[in-house]
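Anyone up for a design puzzle?
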């Protein structure tokens, strides 16, 4: 099992007002944003201390009645193998594994309590940046307080 298995890997805010959310998190967290154009709309990648830390996007029209919310993705070594066991563990597969270019292989599941979470096997190019290797965050002991 890798050191990334089980880590909170990514969080994204799905909202009805991405511009207001960006302004709020820029002021409260010091985040700066890179906008990625996608067919579903703009995806705003938040950066701090040289690393991408979260995403913000407007909820698509198909989710008009869904309230704004943060959604979390957990890193797994093999999302397909993990998803195969979800039912036996009391969970439910909401969306089977699918590939997201430059991000990884993702599935959406519900745990036995009914909470929805994303499971993903990240692409190799993202792993080094998150582990604190070159171009990633500094080691914990070097983070100024």
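Challenge accepted. My sequence:
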């Amino acid at each position: 099992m890798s050191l990334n298995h089980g880590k909170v890997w990514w969080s994204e805010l799905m909202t009805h007002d991405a511009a207001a959310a960006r302004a709020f998190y820029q002021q409260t967290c010091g985040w700066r944003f890179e906008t990625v154009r996608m067919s579903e709309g703009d995806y705003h990648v938040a950066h701090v201390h040289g690393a991408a830390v979260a995403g913000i996007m407007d909820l698509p029209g198909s989710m008009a009645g869904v309230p704004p919310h943060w959604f979390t993705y957990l890193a797994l070594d093999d999302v397909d193998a993990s998803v195969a066991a979800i039912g036996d563990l009391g969970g439910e597969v909401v969306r089977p594994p699918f590939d997201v270019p430059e991000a990884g292989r993702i599935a959406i599941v519900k745990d036995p309590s009914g909470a929805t979470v994303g499971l993903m096997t990240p692409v190799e190019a993202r792993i080094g940046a998150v582990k604190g290797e070159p171009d990633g965050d500094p080691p914990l002991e070097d983070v100024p307080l």
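A detail worth pointing out: DSSP finds three helices and eight strands in the chain.
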